[in-house]
Design brief:
This protein is of the alpha/beta class. It has 2 domains: about 10-40 and about 290-380, Aspartate Aminotransferase, domain 1 (Alpha-Beta Complex), CATH 3.90.1150; about 40-285, 3-Layer(aba) Sandwich (Aspartate Aminotransferase, domain 2). It is about 40% helix and about 15% strand. The protein has 12 helices and 13 strands. It has helices at about 10-20, 40-50, 60-75, 90-105, 120-130, 145-155, 175-185, 200-205, 245-250, 275-310, 335-345, 365-380, and strands spanning about 85-90, 110-115, 135, 160-165, 190-195, 220-225, 240-245, 255, 265, 315, 325-330, 350, 355-360. The strands form 3 sheets. Strands 1-7-6-5-4-2-3 form a 7-stranded mixed sheet, sandwiched between helices. The chain has a 4-stranded antiparallel sheet with strand order 10-11-13-12, with helices on one face. A two-stranded antiparallel sheet has the order 8-9. Helix 3 (about 60-75) runs parallel beside helix 10 (about 275-310). The chain is globular and about 60 Å long. The mean pLDDT is about 95. Bound molecules: pyridoxal-5'-phosphate. Pyridoxal-5'-phosphate (PLP) binds near residues 95, 122 and 168.
Length: about 375
Amino acid sequence: MQDKGISREKVIKTLRDYKNRDLTYQSGRILGSMCTCPHPVALEAYAMFLESNLGDPGLFPGTKDLEDEVITILGDMLGKSDVHGHIITGGTEANIMAMRAARNLSDVKDGEIIVPKSAHFSFKKAAEMLCLNLKEAELDENYRIDLNSVENLISDKTVAVVGIAGTTELGKIDPIAGLSEICLDNDIYLHVDAAFGGFSIPFLQDAGYNLPEFDFKIPGVSSMTIDPHKMGLAPIPTGGILFRHREYLESMSIETPYLTEDRQSTIVGTRTGASTAATWALLKHLGRRGYRKIATRCMDLTHYLAESLEKADFILVTEPELNIVAFRSSQLTLEEISRGMMDKGWLPSISAHPPAIRIIIMPHIRKNHLETFLADLKSIN
Ligand SMILES: Cc1ncc(COP(=O)(O)O)c(C=O)c1O
């Protein structure tokens, strides 16, 4: 570090130079991310609460009340308003917390968790950190968890089963009702990772989309991940973890001797209240109608892209269920498409299971972005 500080103007100018090298959501060039442009109301709320620390909630009782209200509203959106949880950094932390609760609630040593092969890699981190063994269940022909495979993997070491509502690679919704029956029959904790789908499935159902039940309305669901910083339009970092019963959250609480609360269940200690304020602002400002409009617009563009790709002789890997389109070409390998599109300024995301180019139609995507993308794609095919 240099001894003498540099002027504010120089600092900001240099930062701007760095920032100018980043891609922006507004440019439409970010097609493979589950994050998006935060809503302006969320940014205003976020800035208001920058100094608030929910790791020491007695100092910030106003922010704590906001968090309680946000958790109740999210629970209500997901079928049960009396849930217990926190606004945290994102889906990874939420999934680790859920697996930690499941492990702590069981008295099994060297426990196992069963996740679908389509699960986000955060479960691998969770398994490693919590000394759990990860068992991967097979998928069916529609890339959803295969219930027979889950039943075959269950053993007296199983501490949790995980279903996904909006898989990372294809946006598929696992049969949560089927998982619930299996888990209730075997007295096993069921976690639903709705990091991606949590902020769209309820609103698409309102709009008449025929999507399956996936939330706390299903009796066996013990906890859910829902990420406001994905389809919720909140700034990063904003994740949500919800538990059906208070004891699940408390099963991982640790004594906090010098703080204004006696015990803490979250993984991080100091925890921004700004994410909570931003989420509260969005839930109030957009309401169900606002979120419905956003989710249906993304789906309309998803169908437009899927149909245009088929017309141009690309092969859809599967019918989109949520706002993700995965495709291949019969002429070019995925690497050739990727290289060709990179030369034209795109950074396509390649999914591994199944191999495909994966486009996520987030709220920042406009039709003209997709038209340009399609024109460039056709020119290299
Ligand atoms: C289904 C799912 N769960 C969890 C995560 C992890 O979320 P984060 O990157 O916010 O930690 C993702 C990320 O894309 C995801 O798609």
